[in-house]
Amino acid sequence: MKQGVLFIISGPSGTGKGTICNELLKQEKMFLSVSNTTRERRVGEIDGVTYNYVSVEEFERQIDKGGFLEYAKYGSNYYGTPREPVESRLQRGENVLLEIEPQGALKVKQQISDAVMIFIIPPSMKELKKRLEERGRETKEQIDERMEASKWEFSKAAQYNFICVNDKLDECVERVRAIIHDTVKERGLIENLLKENY
Ligand code: 5GP
User: How far is the centre of ligand 1, averaged over its atoms, from the C-alpha of 102 (Å)?
Assistant: First the structure.
């Protein structure tokens, strides 16, 4: 049976990964992986939808059991992609979307080499800081930490398959959709070639 394609949307915090994924899901039939995290639930977030909120002990038990496709410590919290839902959806031929930070994205690529890695960048560092400040989710110290972390993250961008600038949201979403459509079409062409009798 035809395997699904794994798409990874990654990049520094504040680049708009979450918004892009939400927009994509309105228009594309894909499975969005729900991550586990040890961070506090924020107002408006829903357990089991935004994240699965777990204790550090529970998270570490899952690490020991090999339950994560990848996990990373980001700031002082763990974030991880549960392995089973992603692998089973891909096997069933569904396309899967991960929205994760770059340490984790690079770990997934090591295991699933045909994953499509898309790195989202802001138009400028100034704009990145402004977006982090305006969304008002983090303290000033956390924003400074995230800006600092972004430098290491940008240094990994060249390892990705695609880099998309999120200047105007709708244009960025269209570019990501085009990447998804082209990839699925190209993978189909290869599969047909391999099935052909000659
Ligand atoms: P936030 O705390 O703002 O929701 O997320 C912090 C960062 O963790 C974001 O860059 C987000 O994309 C990333 N993230 C969310 N889930 C996962 C995951 O399962 N694995 C990894 N490596 N990063 C994640």
Answer: 9
Residues 155-177: pLDDT tens digits?
999 999 999 999 999 999 999 99
φ and ψ at 60, to 5 degrees? -65, -30
Nearest to 54 by CA among 81, 73, 78, 83: 78
Cβ of 146: how many Cβ atoms within 10 Å? Answer: 20
Distance CA 60, CA 65 (A): 9
SS3 of residue 115 by DSSP = coil
pLDDT digits (tens, 9 = 90+) for 90-103: 999 999 999 999 99
Q: Is the CB of 99 under 6 A from ligand 1?
A: yes
Q: Tell me how far the alpha carbon of residue 10 lies from the centroid of ligand 1, in angstroms.
A: 9
Q: What is the value of pTM for the model shown?
A: 0.96
